[in-house]
From TrEMBL:
Any one GO MF annotation of this record: protein serine/threonine phosphatase activity
Family annotation (Gene3D superfamilies): Phosphoglycerate mutase-like
UniProt gene name: Pgam5
Entry similarity comment: Belongs to the phosphoglycerate mutase family. BPG-dependent PGAM subfamily.
Reaction it catalyzes: O-phospho-L-seryl-[protein] + H2O = L-seryl-[protein] + phosphate; O-phospho-L-threonyl-[protein] + H2O = L-threonyl-[protein] + phosphate
Pfam name, any one: His_Phos_1
Enzyme type, top EC level: hydrolase
The protein's name: Serine/threonine-protein phosphatase PGAM5, mitochondrial
């Protein structure tokens, strides 16, 4: 409901000026800026941790986060904010990345936590969460998509550059939804740790995928997917 027509009350249209007034009101409801969304997968973490607080970044994971932070800084963009999952591995990745982007505010959210977004098609044998997870996690991750991935607000005057540090399942689902692909295909994509996925959302709501899971800035011996 971000199309200009959805933002005005057509019942209040002046009957005398009609179409002319409608066109003017529509212009005031059209977005003007482009949003650049950088989706970062967290770095490698300790898989043996039983609780989230124990799943901290490995030494290699910390190196990966440094490389990702350096890459983002090298782009020379004025980043507006870093929104990150509240899970430990995403929070630690954010802390390292943010050292390379001084002054950029950080916001933590539970919406971006890892989970099971939707039952994959085709199904896979190595990953079968309980059905209830799809209902609980899926609703939350869909809420994250609707909350964060949309055209710019009509009040936004300049293009924005935002970083989201989260998880592979969340990013893959968001990419499918943003590109209007069947979301059940999310598991067909693979993302390296510390990778950068770049979505562009135009003022008319159209979305383009600039990069998916880019880790070309990392030496081959630093690249992992676990």
């Amino acid at each position: 409901r971000r199309e200009p027509l959805a933002l005005i009350n057509l019942k209040k249209k002046n009957e005398e000026t009609g179409e002319e007034e409608l066109a003017s009101r529509l212009d005031h409801c059209k977005a003007k800026a482009t949003r650049h969304i950088f989706l970062i997968r967290h770095s490698q973490y300790n898989l043996d941790g039983q609780a989230d607080k124990d799943r901290t970044l490995t030494p290699l994971g910390r190196e990966q986060a440094e490389l990702t932070g350096h890459r983002l800084a090298s782009l020379g963009l004025k980043f507006d904010q870093i929104i990150h999952s509240s899970m430990t591995r995403a929070t630690e990745t954010t802390e390292i990345i943010s050292k390379h982007l001084p002054g950029v505010k950080k916001i933590s959210t539970d919406l971006l936590r890892e989970g099971a977004p939707i039952e994959p098609d085709p199904p896979v044998s190595h990953w079968k969460p309980e059905a209830v997870q799809y209902y609980e996690d899926g609703a939350r991750i869909e809420a994250a998509f609707r909350n964060f991935i949309h055209r710019a607000d009509v009040k936004q005057e300049e293009d924005s550059y935002e970083i989201f540090v989260c998880h592979a399942n969340v990013i893959r689902y968001i990419v499918c939804r943003a590109l209007q692909f069947p979301p059940e295909g999310w598991l067909r994509m693979s993302l390296n740790n510390g990778s950068i996925t770049h979505l562009v959302i135009r003022p008319n709501g159209r979305v383009a995928l600039r990069t998916l899971g880019d880790t070309g800035f990392m030496p081959p011996d630093k690249i992992t997917r676990t």
